[in-house]
Amino acid sequence: MTTSQSGTTAAPGALGRVTFLDGQGELPMLEISTPWSSAAIYLQGAHVTQFKKKDEPPMLFLSQCSRFVEGQPIRGGIPVVFPWFGQREGLGQHGFARVKTWDLKEVAPAPDGSVSVRFRLPACPEASDFTPFTADYLVTVSQSLTLQLVITNQSNDAEFTFENCLHSYFEVSDITAISVSGLNGLNYLDKVAHFVEQTETNETLRIASEVDRVYQNATGTVEILDPRFGRIIRIEKHGSASTVVWNPWTAKSRQMPDFGDEEFERMICVEAGNVASNSISLPPGATSTLTVKLATETLT
Ligand code: BG6
């Protein structure tokens, strides 16, 4: 890495600051502050647990009941889902990347005040069942939050097929008061109805029950309109053909030990990735980059 891992670092003249500390459960984490915003990232899972613009409510939802235990997923923020999404027989849900402690490779405060940090998924026994690959994750904190997951197939002769997803949990004022735009006309797998394929016919999606949908061939920008918070959260993406929308609602919330019974009221997951029929098959030596830019603006 390019800067010291202890104490507070900032490039000369820069206004961005990075602090290394023990977070909840004594898991190592970084706190980042910029002239416009602050963010928190745990090394376990390279997991962004918070992004907040000054004078705004947090952009990301983090459960009050989340575990902060080595090897167990954090509930909220942005889990990095890779190399598979959902259930895989005999293996855990959503891949192993979200529970591994990633190596911090670079901390780069820029003269304009933004801060970028780069992580790499270390070698681990679980990866040996896959074609050799590297996974890098670049997080840039500024007026917005930009995430880049870069997967390279390191094999000389084998394809690498995988799924990925940046599983963002967003903080909302009230789940019944928000709407989600950018999905109209897309086909989706409805996980609440045994993966039946449906077509989205609503101009904007309102949530009034459990929702768990994998929108396919969904490359466009999605927006969450939150009139009570007076803001729009914009999810802009590149290198992503799937959008997942999830809210566990009442019954499922009660089944999750690391999630409060009422917390579904103030969160929604809008996830960007490449899953199911949109999984990626990478030729030998090739690289795939998933980029997600999360920004907020005032809703008037
Ligand atoms: C979503 C899935 O992406 O993640 C849901 O579509 C799942 O089916 C949810 O319940 C949470 O998953 P987990 O493993 O973090 O509880």
Description:
- By secondary structure, the protein is mostly beta strands.
- The protein has a single domain, classed as Beta-galactosidase, Chain A, domain 5.
- The protein is 2% helix and 43% strand.
- The protein has one helix and 24 strands.
- The strands form four sheets. It has a nine-stranded antiparallel sheet, with no helix packed on it. Strands 6, 12, 13, 15, 16, 18, 21 and 22 form an eight-stranded antiparallel sheet that branches.
- The model is unreliable at 1-12 (pLDDT under 50).
- It binds 6-O-phosphono-beta-D-glucopyranose (BG6).
- Residues 73, 93-94, 167, 191, 212, 244, 246, 271 line the site of 6-O-phosphono-beta-D-glucopyranose.
- 6-O-phosphono-beta-D-glucopyranose (BG6) binds at residues 73, 93-94, 167, 191, 212, 244, 246, 271.
Shape: globular
| Ends apart, CA distance between termini | 43 Å
Amount of helix: under 10%
- Write down the Rg: 19 Å
Number of H- or I-type helical stretches: 1
Strand order of the largest sheet: 7-8-9-10-24-20-19-14-17
Strand content: 35-45%
- Strand count: 24
